[in-house]
């Protein structure tokens, strides 16, 4: 049998498997609420975003149910038959951090290099997001289109490819499930306003402002997804 490379597990996956073992052993019973994120993070000596990524993975796999305003509860245990494994994606907060680094520089480069046609395509994607929002449609596809247009306008094909790769994971099951819990009209109103600030800086050829506006957008996105799941719990 040929030797196969051993891939290191992502941190959130190791956390998820540890909690899943406790659920299978009956340490946490069906219907029971799990300890708050801050307590799990302290016990496991990891960050709260890593714990949140692990809990989202467990929800996708069927171990827990996230009830915004109440907490995270154990569901019925997984069926005996093997389920399809989750794709080996980066955690949602890892993705946001990576996108902050790459896309802020793409925005700065787009402010320098974008052609009039590229600026028109960015503005069209932003207008489509606004139309989606008015129709109560989640504007994810046009959100992706806006960001990819900026990456293409960076005049660096390697950066554009990297951003497309991150967006492929951003539309994976972990990120979409996390977003589902916070998908509200207010979320998209804020996001569209942040996109408008990025667009204005790029159109004005303000590369420093475009970089800063994209960083603010990504920082705000991380904060939105870190809001407490439990009523009255500290953030």
Would you mind describing this structure in some detail?
This protein is mainly α. It has ten helices and two strands, in the order αααββααααααα. The protein has helices at residues 11-24, 37-44, 48-61, 92-113, 116-134, 140-152, 157-170, 173-182, 185-203, 207-224, and strands at 64-67, 71-74. A two-stranded antiparallel sheet has the order 1-2. The radius of gyration is 20 Å and the shape is elongated. The chain starts with 10 loop residues before the first helix and ends in an 11-residue tail after the last helix. The model has no long low-confidence stretch (mean pLDDT 88).
Strand order of the largest sheet: 1-2
Strand residue content: under 5%
Total DSSP E strands = 2
Q: How big is the Rg?
A: 20 Å
Looking at this protein, list some descriptive labels.
single chain; 235 residues; mainly alpha
Provide a concise account of the structure shown.
The chain has 235 residues and is mainly alpha-helical. The chain has ten helices and two strands.
List the helices and strands and how they pair.
Blueprint: H1 11-24, H2 37-44, H3 48-61, E1 64-67, E2 71-74, H4 92-113, H5 116-134, H6 140-152, H7 157-170, H8 173-182, H9 185-203, H10 207-224
Antiparallel strand pairs: 1-2
């Amino acid at each position: 049998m040929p030797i196969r490379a051993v891939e290191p597990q992502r941190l959130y996956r190791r956390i998820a498997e540890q909690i899943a073992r406790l659920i299978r052993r009956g340490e946490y019973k069906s219907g029971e609420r799990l300890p708050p994120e801050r307590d799990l993070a302290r016990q496991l000596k990891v960050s709260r975003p890593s714990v949140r990524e692990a809990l989202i993975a467990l929800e996708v796999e069927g171990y827990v149910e996230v009830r915004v305003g109440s907490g995270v509860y154990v569901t019925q245990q997984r069926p005996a038959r093997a389920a399809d494994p989750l794709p080996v994606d980066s955690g949602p907060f890892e993705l946001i951090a990576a996108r902050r680094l790459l896309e802020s520089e793409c925005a700065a480069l787009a402010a320098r290099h974008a052609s009039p046609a590229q600026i028109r395509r960015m503005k069209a994607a932003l207008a489509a997001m606004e139309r989606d929002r008015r129709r109560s449609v989640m504007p994810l596809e046009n959100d992706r289109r806006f960001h990819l247009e900026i990456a293409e306008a960076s005049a660096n094909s390697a950066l554009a490819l990297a951003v497309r790769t991150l967006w492929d994971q951003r539309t994976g099951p972990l990120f979409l499930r996390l977003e589902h819990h916070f998908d509200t009209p207010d979320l998209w109103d804020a996001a569209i306003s942040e996109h408008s600030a990025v667009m204005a800086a790029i159109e004005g050829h303000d590369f420093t402002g475009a970089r800063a506006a994209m960083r603010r957008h990504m920082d705000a996105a991380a904060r939105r997804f870190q809001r407490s799941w439990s009523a009255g719990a500290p953030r």
